[in-house]
Amino acid sequence: MTYETIKKNYDRKLWSLKMVKTAVAKGVITPEQYHEITGETYIE
């Protein structure tokens, strides 16, 4: 899984905020990338 894939899936409504948040928790993307994808600040 990459940032680009996660962003594409989120934009297509295939991924929820919770799923993107899980990607941050697992270290796949950074909190900054979470913000770029969702427009929201990452809070653990």
Mind explaining what this structure looks like?
This protein is mainly α and 44 residues long. The protein has one domain. The chain is built from 3 helices and no strands. Helix 2 runs antiparallel to helix 3. The mean pLDDT is 97.
Largest sheet: none
Task: Please tell me the overall pLDDT.
Answer: 97
Helix content: 55-70%
Number of helices: 3
Low-confidence stretches: none
Name the helix and strand elements from N-terminus to C-terminus, one letter apiece: HHH
Structural class: mainly alpha
Distance between the termini: 21 Å
SSE arrangement:
Elements: H1 3-11, H2 17-25, H3 31-38
Helix pairs in contact: 2-3
Notable traits:
44 residues, globular, single chain, mainly alpha, 3 helices
